Amino acid sequence: MLKVYGFSRVNPFAHGNTRDLRVLWALEEMGMPYEIVGMDHPQGDLESESFGSVNPFRQIPAIDDDGVVVTESGAILLYLARKSGKLIPADLAGEAQVLRWSVAALSSVETPVLSMWFVGLSGGKGSQPHDALRSWSALRLQQLDGWLRNRAFVATDEFTVADILMTHVLAAASTAAELLEPHANVRSYLARCMARPAWKRTLDAYEARVEAG
Ligand SMILES: N[C@@H](CCC(=O)N[C@@H](CS)C(=O)NCC(=O)O)C(=O)O
Question: How remote is the C-alpha of 7 from its chain's centroid?
């Protein structure tokens, strides 16, 4: 049985935003069976020797699929899509678009918005580096907004794992709402992806299971 390492307890700020949700959402969309290995972050479960051998970075998410260990949310989603044949096209050209936009979500978009959040959290609000990161983030969102002008989904005509990654990057509490505000195409894209029943079921199950503390 596929094991998913996900949080069982996490601090209140991160609760509802953690990257195990990307994996759980994908599994829900794919209808794949799995079991959750619950990790208590405040209690130090990520620091255990056994988890260190799963993920040297000691971060969630990770999966163990009958001995195939995969970490990094993007790599996990692409692995699950290839394995299930769902949320990714079967042809090489279509698959390339999903790879392209999965990497774009996690590098071109997540890097500036997460860096801006981190510098702000570290006391840098109002500083020159924070302003520079805001400009960098705003540029990427403006460009993404143009790309989404006539598209329902980011990589292909259908919903794919690239949409899960892009949606979760943009909807995380770490992405400042002020960045999204000017971009109507991005906002309607997010609303469309987050209205999916599988996302609602995933979030409801997470909220019922994961303790904020
Ligand atoms: N690049 C990784 C980042 C994983 C990550 O940042 N995980 C967070 C939870 S969302 C974590 O485990 N934080 C705990 C820690 O770093 O101590 C991915 O996309 O999977």
Answer: 14
